[in-house]
Write a structure and sequence with these properties.
The chain contains four helices and four strands; from the N terminus they run ααβαββαβ. It is an alpha+beta fold. The longest helix has 20 residues. The relative contact order is 0.20. The mean pLDDT is 92.
Length: 137
């Protein structure tokens, strides 16, 4: 881990009290780690907005009985293979499957892949979950 640098932060007392309550509820033992996490989240969000190299997970819930759906989903993943790191296929019941796809690449390309997969007929739910960046933090 990099060397830590101490610095002071000034804020209104009510805001600090609300922050302390929030971090207590989330299980933080100190303000420093909570603040580091907030800064990391802001940097990751900016990377997604600016189209930088990002990491994420695409989650799909779909009816596997839909004609050729699995083949189309698989083809789309193979077509985007530099960005698809791994996938997990879960049989939920006789008709529904859950697919979890780990992805990495430029934010725009990752979003386009998620949009393409979500748009397939038979996909009941599709979510792109940003998981961070490929950066140093």
């Amino acid at each position: 881990m990099a060397d830590l640098v101490r610095f002071g932060v000034s804020m209104e007392e009510e805001l600090l009290q609300a922050f302390d309550e929030l971090i207590r509820k989330k299980g933080y033992t100190n303000r420093s780690e909570a603040l580091r996490d907030l800064v990391r989240e802001a940097l990751h969000a900016q990377a997604w907005e600016e189209g930088e190299e990002v990491l994420g997970v695409i989650v799909l819930l779909y009816d596997h009985r839909k004609r050729e759906l699995l083949a189309r989903l698989t083809e789309a993943q193979h077509h985007a293979h530099p960005h698809v790191l791994a996938s997990l296929h879960i049989h939920l019941d006789e008709e529904n499957c859950l697919e979890v796809i780990a992805v990495r690449g430029p934010a725009g390309e990752v979003r386009r892949l998620a949009d393409r997969l979500r748009a397939e007929k038979g996909v009941k739910l599709g979510r792109l979950c940003p998981a961070g960046t490929h950066g140093p933090f």
